[in-house]
């Protein structure tokens, strides 16, 4: 019976949960207006790793609420080149979510990769850069960068590498990943078209006996078509995605960048 | 009896009881600016082929009260850039003071080296002096730092001028440090009312590069009129600035011209009308 009544001198009654305990210090009728340091600036990103290349893409719309702030705001950044123009960069970072945090994250990672190049006389490997990015994100675990990052490049063997992150630094190397506002629209499409999920060989059996379609690495033209299709689909169904498509192809010859139009409505 | 000098002239504790010091502490957490108080409404700007036009009205509102009617919200910087402020006016004044210091430092820094600008363009600002792109970067870092400290400067800021490649530059920063650029930009109500009009004339950078100065000024003045018609926190007196390679031309006492309130007669269904 005693446990039913509060140890709290405030109330000699039933215990309150943490959230709705009455606050003694708040003045009567005080309205608490707290500054919200985060917003969502919409947009979507996508990365697919091929046998000897990686394709990264993102739309170029920047929104706040129902307003379009900018129709040309890139979400893909070359990281760790020798100079500011990033001519000799080998790694690409895409960020989506809260634009200011994304920008800050990009600048941190770029500065770190540049310092690495300066100290060691060689560019950072994607694997090392991926681990470092995770550390940067986790360092702000209790005031996170509200950004979904994807890192793309070529691994030590020259194969395409895609690393995807959550805002607090959990990461994983994957074959493909979609991020941002339309991630839930694009990811299932990618599962089906890149990893051939839910694709079976016709008449190969019943139920569990059905044979899965064998996976094969996609060619670069196939991937580029897939990316455009994925974004055309997302633009049709998500209001925060559109205007332009920024696409970067990372190969052993360097990074090629193209901008394609998307619907502006 | 307490004879220590610290106690001289104070009410005796043994007579009146110990002083209740709780009155001296406000209690609760530090309260930084958690909401804007005196505010300025929209700032609008559009790029044209050899510069940028920016405008903002001269009103500072206190809630719905039109409190100060002669507040200048456009500020030239080093006579090569213009900064326009929307949002809290006291934070604007803080930033203005800060930019003054910065401008003075810059002026001293480049005093010794007489205009070392490139030969082909005598009007370009001296190399190394802060241009609009640099200034925008500086302000965005400042705003982002303040948001990280949970002590934001409650403004949305437009910066107009030229970048390092001497191309017209226009960009925005807000209280969270979010930055973006576009051929035309507008803050506050202007984002809903003026931006669609300006985008008709400068949807892309290529469109903006074809726009003449006269056209750009005309569009901006038209937008200021639309804003005065529909934004209840706006004024018909405004400032307009034109930034070109020759410098900043700022007029701080413009009056809206050729207003037409004929449409108001057709609006029915509000207030005390009986028809």
Automatic annotation (TrEMBL), chain A:
<dbReference type="GO" id="GO:0051603">
    <property type="term" value="P:proteolysis involved in protein catabolic process"/>
</dbReference>
<protein>
    <recommendedName>
        <fullName>Proteasome component C5</fullName>
    </recommendedName>
</protein>
<dbReference type="InterPro" id="IPR029055">
    <property type="entry name" value="Ntn_hydrolases_N"/>
</dbReference>
<keyword id="KW-0539">Nucleus</keyword>
<dbReference type="GO" id="GO:0005737">
    <property type="term" value="C:cytoplasm"/>
</dbReference>
<dbReference type="InterPro" id="IPR001353">
    <property type="entry name" value="Proteasome_sua/b"/>
</dbReference>
<dbReference type="Pfam" id="PF00227">
    <property type="entry name" value="Proteasome"/>
</dbReference>
<keyword id="KW-0647">Proteasome</keyword>
<dbReference type="GO" id="GO:0005634">
    <property type="term" value="C:nucleus"/>
</dbReference>
<dbReference type="GO" id="GO:0005839">
    <property type="term" value="C:proteasome core complex"/>
</dbReference>
<dbReference type="InterPro" id="IPR023333">
    <property type="entry name" value="Proteasome_suB-type"/>
</dbReference>
<keyword id="KW-0963">Cytoplasm</keyword>
UniProtKB/TrEMBL annotation, chain B:
<protein>
    <recommendedName>
        <fullName>Proteasome subunit beta</fullName>
    </recommendedName>
</protein>
<keyword id="KW-0647">Proteasome</keyword>
<dbReference type="GO" id="GO:0005634">
    <property type="term" value="C:nucleus"/>
</dbReference>
<dbReference type="InterPro" id="IPR001353">
    <property type="entry name" value="Proteasome_sua/b"/>
</dbReference>
<keyword id="KW-0963">Cytoplasm</keyword>
<feature type="region of interest" description="Disordered">
    <location>
        <begin position="108"/>
        <end position="129"/>
    </location>
</feature>
<dbReference type="InterPro" id="IPR016050">
    <property type="entry name" value="Proteasome_bsu_CS"/>
</dbReference>
<comment type="similarity">
    <text>Belongs to the peptidase T1B family.</text>
</comment>
<dbReference type="Pfam" id="PF00227">
    <property type="entry name" value="Proteasome"/>
</dbReference>
<keyword id="KW-0539">Nucleus</keyword>
<dbReference type="GO" id="GO:0005737">
    <property type="term" value="C:cytoplasm"/>
</dbReference>
<comment type="function">
    <text>Non-catalytic component of the proteasome.</text>
</comment>
<dbReference type="GO" id="GO:0019774">
    <property type="term" value="C:proteasome core complex, beta-subunit complex"/>
</dbReference>
<dbReference type="InterPro" id="IPR023333">
    <property type="entry name" value="Proteasome_suB-type"/>
</dbReference>
<dbReference type="GO" id="GO:0051603">
    <property type="term" value="P:proteolysis involved in protein catabolic process"/>
</dbReference>
<dbReference type="InterPro" id="IPR029055">
    <property type="entry name" value="Ntn_hydrolases_N"/>
</dbReference>
<dbReference type="InterPro" id="IPR016295">
    <property type="entry name" value="Proteasome_beta4"/>
</dbReference>
């Amino acid at each position: 019976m005693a446990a039913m009544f509060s140890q709290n001198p405030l109330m000699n009654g039933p215990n309150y949960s943490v959230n709705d305990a009455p606050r003694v210090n708040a003045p009567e009728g005080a309205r608490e207006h707290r500054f919200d340091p985060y917003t969502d600036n919409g947009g979507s990103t996508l990365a697919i790793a091929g046998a000897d290349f990686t394709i990264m893409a993102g739309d170029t719309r920047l929104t706040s609420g129902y307003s379009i702030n900018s129709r040309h705001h890139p979400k893909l950044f070359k990281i760790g080149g020798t100079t500011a123009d990033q001519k000799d960069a080998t790694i690409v970072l895409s960020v989506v979510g809260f634009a200011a945090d994304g920008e800050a994250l990009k600048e941190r990672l770029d500065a770190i990769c540049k310092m690495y190049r300066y100290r060691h006389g060689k560019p950072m490997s994607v694997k090392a850069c991926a681990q470092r990015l995770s550390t940067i994100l986790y360092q702000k675990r209790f005031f996170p960068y509200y950004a979904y990052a994807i890192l793309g490049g070529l691994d030590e063997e020259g194969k395409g590498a895609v690393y995807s992150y959550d805002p607090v630094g959990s990461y994983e190397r994957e074959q493909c990943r979609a991020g941002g506002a339309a991630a839930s629209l694009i990811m299932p499409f990618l599962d089906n078209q890149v990893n051939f999920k839910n694709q079976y060989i016709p008449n190969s059996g019943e139920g569990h006996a059905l044979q899965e379609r064998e996976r094969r690495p996609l060619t670069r033209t196939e991937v580029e078509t897939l990316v455009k299709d994925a974004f055309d689909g997302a633009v049709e169904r998500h209001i925060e995605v559109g205007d332009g498509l920024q696409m970067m192809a990372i190969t052993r010859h360097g990074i090629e960048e193209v901008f394609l139009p998307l619907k502006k409505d | 009896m307490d004879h220590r000098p610290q106690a001289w002239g104070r009410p005796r504790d043994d007579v009146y009881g110990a002083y209740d010091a709780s009155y001296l502490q406000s209690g609760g957490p530090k309260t930084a600016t958690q909401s804007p108080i005196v505010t300025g409404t929209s700032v609008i700007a559009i790029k044209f082929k050899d510069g940028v036009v920016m405008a903002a009205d001269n009103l500072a509102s206190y809630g719905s009260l039109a409190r100060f009617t002669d507040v200048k919200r456009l500020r030239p910087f080093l006579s090569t850039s213009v900064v326009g402020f929307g949002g809290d006016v006291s934070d604007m004044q803080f930033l203005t003071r800060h930019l003054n210091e910065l401008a003075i430092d810059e002026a001293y820094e480049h005093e010794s080296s007489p205009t070392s600008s490139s030969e082909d363009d005598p009007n370009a600002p001296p190399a190394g002096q802060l241009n609009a792109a640099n200034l925008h970067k500086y302000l965005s870092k400042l705003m982002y730092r303040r948001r990280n400290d949970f002590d934001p400067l409650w403004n949305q800021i437009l910066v107009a001028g030229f970048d390092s490649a001497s191309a017209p530059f226009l960009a925005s920063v807000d209280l969270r440090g979010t930055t973006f650029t576009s051929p035309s930009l507008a803050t506050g109500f202007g984002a809903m009312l003026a931006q669609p009009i300006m985008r008709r004339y400068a949807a892309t950078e290529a469109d903006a590069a074809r726009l003449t100065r006269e056209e750009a000024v005309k569009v901006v003045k038209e937008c200021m009129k639309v804003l005065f018609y529909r934004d209840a926190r706006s004024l018909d007196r405004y400032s307009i600035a034109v930034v070109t390679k020759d410098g900043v031309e700022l007029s701080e006492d413009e009056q809206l011209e050729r207003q037409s309130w004929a449409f108001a007669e057709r609006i029915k269904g509000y207030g005390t009308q009986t028809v």
